[in-house]
Amino acid sequence: MDERYFQPVLLQNEISDLTILRQGTDIKTITLVKADHIGDFFLAYDAFTAIRKAYPSAHITLICGPWNEALARESRLFDDIVTINFFQQQSQPAANGLSGADASKVEKLTSDVAIDLRVDPDTRVILDLIETDIRIGYESDRNRLPLTISMTRPNLGSTGNIGVHQSLMILQLATAFIELCKTAKAELRFKAPAAGIDLSFAQSKILVVMNTSSGRDIKNWPLERFCELARWLVKEMDCCLVLVGGKDQIGDAEAIIAACDEDSRIRSFVGTISLLQSLAVLEDADIFIGNDTGLTHYAAQKHIKTVAIFSGIDPIEVWMPRGPATSIIKVPVPCSPCRIGALSQCPNDHACIRLITYSFVRHAVRDALLGCIPKARPAIQ
């Protein structure tokens, strides 16, 4: 592996097809693809209705066969209807595919979200032609562009499982879209009880909370780089820094404090407070910095400015922290995701973490500092 070609990326700005879902942007235009037969239209009716109910003000366009146009208009669920002859009206003959004229119709469509509500994979090619950032559908090998939400088609053999009924699978796809977009906006409702810890030393200053470990070496950014970052935050940026974590991170905390010359702007609660107390401290943070760990997910979902450093073990699309103020740093090495359990098993010298440089993380943290207004932290009596 030639490492010269693999540089860290800031995924908050780079994954354009997740921007709407991660940031919770309002969905104003939706295109639904249901280009198959009359029976299929009725099987999708619950899904149509659920999407319209979830987005009553959105402009919804339906792509359907001409034989379903009158049904679609009568339903009053759609603002526009585009007809194409991807299939023939009778289900027995083979599909026609997209003609040049029909492709031209689809290519004119621009939408925040495009959803193919057919379970079979054939019509996923239609999503490639729609100008959109979000493509949703059941898994398929027919589409060229990746799906933002891709659901796995179940084994449709004779199982006696009514959960694989077409109408339920179509509704499940619609529900996944609705729920993900809705929760992308929501702040985590869980709130840790007051920690009883005095953070007034950080009054009128930006408070950064840092956690140096994920519990697995293979997921951890090097300690010496955390030390550099901590020194820069305290000495050059005049931030206050709080360290949190378990007893296994006491050595890390001591190294960071030493790197900062035991500056009065740094405090360590590593190994001395409970998890709930750590979460309460984190809620007082202006910025959180950490690896792929539970505290990182908590900070992101509490809408705290979060800089998350990710290894290549797992697919980022599955495990990334979700929040409107989250920056995720990752190197797209070809061996990722590897899902290996220990650093000793890595054949590439931990390239996915090693190539995340101190300067790149510092740049991301500096961006998070811009416009940051310190929270009020009165002394505890």
| Structural domain count | 2
CATH class group of the largest domain: Alpha Beta
Radius of gyration: 25 Å
Number of strands: 13
Sheet with most strands:
7 strands, mixed
Note the beta-strand portion. Answer: 5-15%
Unreliable stretches covering 5 or more consecutive residues? 13-20
Ends: how far apart? 58 Å
**Roughly what percent helix?**
25-40%
CATH architecture tag of the largest domain: 3-Layer(aba) Sandwich
- Strands of the largest sheet, in order across it? 1-13-12-11-8-9-10
Class by SSE composition: alpha/beta
CATH-wise, what's the superfamily of the largest domain? Glycogen Phosphorylase B
Q: What is the helix/strand order?
A: EHHEHHEHEHEHEEHEHEHEHEHEHEHH
Can you tell me about this structure?
The protein is of the alpha/beta class and 381 residues long. The protein has 2 domains: 16-185, Rossmann fold, CATH 3.40.50.2000; 192-369, Glycogen Phosphorylase B (Rossmann fold, 3-Layer(aba) Sandwich), CATH 3.40.50.2000. Helices cover 33% and strands 15% of the residues. The chain contains 15 helices and 13 strands. The chain has helices at residues 11-14, 19-23, 38-43, 45-54, 69-75, 100-107, 125-129, 166-185, 223-236, 250-259, 275-283, 294-301, 316-319, 351-354, 358-369, and strands spanning 9-10, 29-34, 59-64, 80-83, 113-116, 134-138, 149-151, 207-211, 240-243, 266-268, 287-290, 305-309, 326-330. The strands form 2 sheets. The protein has a 7-stranded mixed sheet with strand order 1-13-12-11-8-9-10, sandwiched between helices. Strands 4-3-2-5-6-7 form a 6-stranded parallel sheet, with helices on both faces. Strand 12, helix 13 (316-319) and strand 13 (326-330) form a beta-alpha-beta unit. Helix 4 packs parallel to helix 8. The radius of gyration is 25 Å and the shape is elongated. 40% of the residues are buried. The model is unreliable at 13-20 (pLDDT under 50).
